[in-house]
Design a protein that fits this description.
It contains three helices and five strands. It is of the alpha+beta class. Among the domains are: 31-73, no CATH class; 78-123, no CATH class. The strands form two sheets. The chain has a three-stranded antiparallel beta sheet with strand order 1-2-5. The longest helix is centred in the middle third of the chain and has 20 residues, at 51-70.
Length: 134
């Protein structure tokens, strides 16, 4: 009798959950998510500010952003993108008798500058397009 042993999927670590690469052919493409802790650490290192200060500012920015969007305001960050409320109409579920009611989500639309910066091709050598925040 043959026994087939399945390999367990990678477990999540404190450094972030693994996900599939967006482009498996690109070996240089990052495949790890950045956790909140890692993000705050990077910002602290880049800005030279203590991690506690960066963490407090991060929490304030997120809270203010969510409150503004919840109140129906459009938050536009020049050179980065905009956040707004987006309404979705309810619909019936294909199978079964239940239905999904109307709901609201936060929508983010990246600015052209952000999209250009993200989509810089690696093939031709050149300088990356800087993020312009005014």
């Amino acid at each position: 009798m043959a026994v087939h042993v399945m390999e367990a999927p990678p477990t999540s670590s404190r450094r972030g959950d693994l996900r599939e690469c967006e482009n498996p052919a690109d070996e240089d493409a990052p495949c790890d998510k950045i956790t909140k802790r890692d993000f705050i650490t990077r910002v602290a290192e880049t800005s030279g500010q203590p991690g506690r200060v960066v963490s407090t500012v991060y929490e304030s920015i997120i809270a203010t952003l969510v409150d503004a969007v919840t109140d129906g305001e459009i938050v536009e960050l020049t050179g980065f993108g905009s956040f707004r409320k987006q309404y979705h109409q309810g619909h019936k579920v294909r199978f079964g008798r239940s239905s999904i009611g109307a709901y609201t989500v936060m929508r983010f639309k990246a600015s052209r500058a952000t999209n250009r910066r993200i989509n810089v091709s690696k093939d031709p050598p050149g300088e990356p397009i800087p993020l312009m925040i005014q």
